[in-house]
Design a protein that fits this description.
- This protein has a single domain (2-107), classed as Alpha-Beta Plaits (2-Layer Sandwich), CATH 3.30.70.240.
- It contains 4 helices and 4 strands, in the order βαββαβαα.
- With 108 residues, it is α+β, with helices and mostly antiparallel strands.
- The chain has helices at residues 15-30, 48-61, 75-79, 101-107; strands at 2-9, 34-37, 40-45, 67-74.
- Strands 2-3-1-4 form a 4-stranded antiparallel beta sheet.
- A hairpin with a 2-residue loop joins strand 2 (34-37) and strand 3 (40-45).
- It starts with a strand and ends with a helix.
């Protein structure tokens, strides 16, 4: 059980580049990713085979310019993440250590 993080830095200097960047972000949302930050998206990957399939999907929608990085971390590694926020807005991802993996699988 893990999470695939997609981080990207896409050029937006021209109208065409802005269109491509927007199309990529919307494509990630259509594939079921959640936006953590403006250029950081994440999706649950319940197996390594699922991770490979998700990466192949990203390759299909990737624009012709810019950089895209994909990182896979386990659910336990994400639980160790520390979020430091100076805003009053609550985090979009709350980790509840009482959840079991099978409950997460039912969601996905």
């Amino acid at each position: 059980m893990g999470w695939l993080f997609v981080l990207f830095d896409l050029p937006t200097d021209t109208k065409y580049e802005r269109l491509q960047a927007s199309k990529f972000r919307n494509g990630l949302l259509d594939l079921g990713y959640l936006m953590l930050q403006y250029s950081v998206y994440v999706r649950c990957a319940v197996s390594l085979d699922k991770k490979k399939g998700l990466i192949n999907d990203i390759k299909k929608i990737a624009p012709t310019t810019g950089n895209i990085q994909c990182y896979f971390i386990t659910d336990l590694q994400w639980q160790e993440c520390i979020t430091i926020s100076k805003s009053k807005k609550k985090s979009t991802r709350q980790i509840d250590n009482t959840n079991k993996i099978n409950e997460q699988l039912q969601f996905w």
